[in-house]
């Protein structure tokens, strides 16, 4: 695969993963901030502020996880290679 | 579809990595972040996240190691079972041609 194609695919993948992250975030924040009473359609002020903060925190967590994962994933590479060798040739 | 050229997912490793990343974020967020009175993470939340991230990554390492250790023998056994002659048939007529003949 030529590098440009690989780069394009990686970019598409990143978009997909951002969408996935977004879905998880909305689900998590809804769970944390909107109690399932549903007495009225409008968001209360508390719920609104909670959602704002929740998004801010979720994105912060996402960034930290990224750093931590990159830091530790250098060890992952070795394991992945071994996994491919043992299952790919079976 | 694995094994069929043209339908294989490109960059499977990258996709797996990114999925793990998103799952980790979700899991650790749900478990560690409870104080939504502030926009910034509290000290307690930060410590929890640190532990959660490390724990998940090390758990993943362990799982991979266990998988790598166990899977080959399972695959080998499966391959052997496929090569063995099938058990004696009932009153059904024999198949016209078997695989590998």
Automatic annotation (TrEMBL), chain A:
Naming one, the record's GO cellular component terms include: mitochondrial intermembrane space chaperone complex
Q: Where is the Tim10-like domain?
A: 7-71
> Can you tell me where the transmembrane regions are?
none
Give the record's keywords alphabetically.
Chaperone, Disulfide bond, Membrane, Metal-binding, Mitochondrion, Mitochondrion inner membrane, Protein transport, Translocation, Transport, Zinc
The biological process GO terms on file are: protein insertion into mitochondrial inner membrane; protein transport
**UniProt keyword annotation of Transit peptide present:** no
Question: Which top-level group of life is the source organism from?
Answer: Eukaryota
Compartments annotated for it: namely: Mitochondrion inner membrane
Q: What are the GO MF terms of this UniProt record? A: metal ion binding
Q: Give the matching InterPro entries.
A: Tim10-like (IPR004217), Tim10-like_dom_sf (IPR035427)
Membrane topology of this protein? Peripheral membrane protein
Q: Kindly state the subunit structure of this protein.
A: Heterohexamer.
Q: What does this protein do?
A: Mitochondrial intermembrane chaperone that participates in the import and insertion of some multi-pass transmembrane proteins into the mitochondrial inner membrane. Also required for the transfer of beta-barrel precursors from the TOM complex to the sorting and assembly machinery (SAM complex) of the outer membrane. Acts as a chaperone-like protein that protects the hydrophobic precursors from aggregation and guide them through the mitochondrial intermembrane space.
Family to which this protein belongs? Belongs to the small Tim family.
Please state what the annotation says regarding this protein's domains. Answer: The twin CX3C motif contains 4 conserved Cys residues that form 2 disulfide bonds in the mitochondrial intermembrane space.
This protein is called: Mitochondrial import inner membrane translocase subunit
Q: Which organism is it from?
A: Indicator maculatus (spotted honeyguide)
From TrEMBL, chain B:
SUPFAM superfamilies hit by this protein: Tim10-like (SSF144122)
Has UniProt tagged this entry with the keyword Ribonucleoprotein?
A: no
Q: Which organism is it from?
A: Indicator maculatus
The record, for InterPro entries, names:
Mito_inner_translocase_sub, Tim10-like, Tim10-like_dom_sf
Name listed for the protein in its UniProt record: Mitochondrial import inner membrane translocase subunit
Q: Does the keyword Lipid biosynthesis apply?
A: no
Residues of the Tim10-like domain: 13-67
The record describes its quaternary structure and partners as: Heterohexamer.
Q: Name one GO cellular component term.
A: mitochondrial inner membrane
Domain remark from Swiss-Prot or TrEMBL: The twin CX3C motif contains 4 conserved Cys residues that form 2 disulfide bonds in the mitochondrial intermembrane space.
Low complexity bias locations: 89-101
> Which gene is annotated as encoding this protein in its UniProt record?
Timm10b
In its UniProt record, which GO terms are filed under biological process?
A: protein transport
* Region described as Disordered: 75-101
Topological relation to the membrane, as annotated: Peripheral membrane protein
- Protein family: Belongs to the small Tim family.
Record keywords? Chaperone, Disulfide bond, Membrane, Metal-binding, Mitochondrion, Mitochondrion inner membrane, Protein transport, Translocation, Transport, Zinc
* A Pfam family recorded for this sequence: zf-Tim10_DDP
Biological role: Mitochondrial intermembrane chaperone that participates in the import and insertion of some multi-pass transmembrane proteins into the mitochondrial inner membrane. Also required for the transfer of beta-barrel precursors from the TOM complex to the sorting and assembly machinery (SAM complex) of the outer membrane. Acts as a chaperone-like protein that protects the hydrophobic precursors from aggregation and guide them through the mitochondrial intermembrane space.
| Cell compartment(s), UniProt | Mitochondrion inner membrane
For this UniProt entry, the molecular function terms from Gene Ontology, in alphabetical order, are: metal ion binding
């Amino acid at each position: 695969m030529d590098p440009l194609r690989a780069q394009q695919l990686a970019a598409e993948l990143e978009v997909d993963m951002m969408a996935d992250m977004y879905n998880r975030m909305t689900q998590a924040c809804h769970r944390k901030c909107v109690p399932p009473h549903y007495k009225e359609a409008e968001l209360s002020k508390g719920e609104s502020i909670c959602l704002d903060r929740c998004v801010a925190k979720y994105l912060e967590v996402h960034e930290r996880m990224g750093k931590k994962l990159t830091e530790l994933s250098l060890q992952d590479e070795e394991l992945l290679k071994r996994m491919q060798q043992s299952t790919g040739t079976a | 579809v694995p094994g069929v050229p043209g339908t294989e997912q490109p960059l499977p490793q990258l996709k797996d990595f990114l999925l793990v990343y998103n799952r980790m974020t979700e899991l650790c967020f749900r478990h560690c972040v409870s104080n939504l009175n502030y926009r910034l993470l509290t000290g307690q939340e930060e410590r929890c996240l640190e532990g959660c991230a490390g724990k998940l990554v090390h758990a993943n390492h362990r799982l991979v190691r266990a998988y790598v250790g166990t899977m080959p023998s399972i695959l080998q056994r499966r391959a052997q079972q496929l090569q063995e002659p099938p058990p004696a048939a009932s009153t059904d007529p024999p198949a016209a041609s078997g695989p590998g003949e």
